[in-house]
């Protein structure tokens, strides 16, 4: 036992480097997915049918392609057309685009849950569509979308391990490198699993609190 703990202590500094990369990928991807998801949700809400079709098509296509394939495409295929990205950049953009489809559905559900009477009342006093979106719809839609948004954060944290497939040195990748050089698979991947759990627990707690707050509101 003491020998295993000693080995674990030796691995921790390298794994911690991966933890910070994992956090960076998750946070930046979350920002990208939130902005894009909100854009697609609003585009689908507009009265212009062409915009609605573009939004639906994007969401359907992105949700239908595995995230790992999207990452491969961005990192390995895009350079063929002159777009060269680092592995980290490709990972953040790929994860952000992939999850923007799910974020769009979260926001769309929030928008559609708003009482139509509120929108009609805002229109009756002369508010423009843009103003209605900013003052009436989005504040309530954000509140409604908070619980699924919290769950999406947890999923993104776990799925950030996929960027290891394009050589991003996040937690899983660092664990793979240590395991391949030491052959100490049990110790290494037990540590990796525990570190993901430690990162996920606060997000899980936050998601539950958001759900309770929304239910009691």
TrEMBL record:
Membrane topology: Multi-pass membrane protein
TM region positions: 20-45, 57-76, 186-207
Domain ABC transmembrane type-1: 19-207
Keywords carried by this UniProt record: Amino-acid transport, Cell membrane, Membrane, Transmembrane, Transmembrane helix, Transport
InterPro entries in UniProt: AA_ABC_transptr_permease_3TM, ArtM/GltK/GlnP/TcyL/YhdX-like, MetI-like, MetI-like_sf
Family named by the database record: Belongs to the binding-protein-dependent transport system permease family. HisMQ subfamily.
Protein name: Amino acid ABC transporter permease
Organism: Nitratireductor aquimarinus
């Amino acid at each position: 036992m003491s020998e295993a703990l000693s080995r674990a202590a030796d691995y921790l500094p390298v794994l911690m480097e991966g933890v910070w990369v994992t956090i960076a990928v998750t946070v930046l991807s979350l920002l990208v997915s939130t902005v894009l998801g909100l854009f697609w949700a609003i585009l689908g809400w507009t009265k212009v049918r062409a915009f609605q079709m573009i939004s639906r098509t994007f969401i359907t296509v992105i949700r239908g392609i595995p995230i790992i394939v999207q990452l491969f495409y961005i990192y390995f295929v895009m350079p063929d057309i002159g777009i060269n990205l680092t592995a980290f950049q490709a990972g953040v953009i790929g994860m952000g685009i992939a999850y923007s489809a799910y974020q769009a559905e979260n926001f769309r559900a929030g928008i559609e849950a708003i009482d139509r009477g509120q929108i009609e009342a805002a229109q009756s006093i002369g508010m423009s569509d843009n103003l209605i979106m900013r003052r009436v719809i989005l504040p309530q839609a954000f509140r409604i979308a908070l619980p699924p948004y919290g769950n999406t954060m947890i999923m993104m944290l776990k799925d950030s391990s996929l960027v290891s497939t394009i050589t991003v040195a996040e937690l899983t990748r660092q664990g793979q490198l240590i395991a391949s050089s030491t052959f100490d698979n049990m110790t290494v991947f037990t540590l990796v699993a525990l570190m993901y759990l430690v990162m996920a627990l606060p997000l899980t707690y936050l998601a539950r609190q958001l759900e309770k707050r929304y239910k009691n509101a």
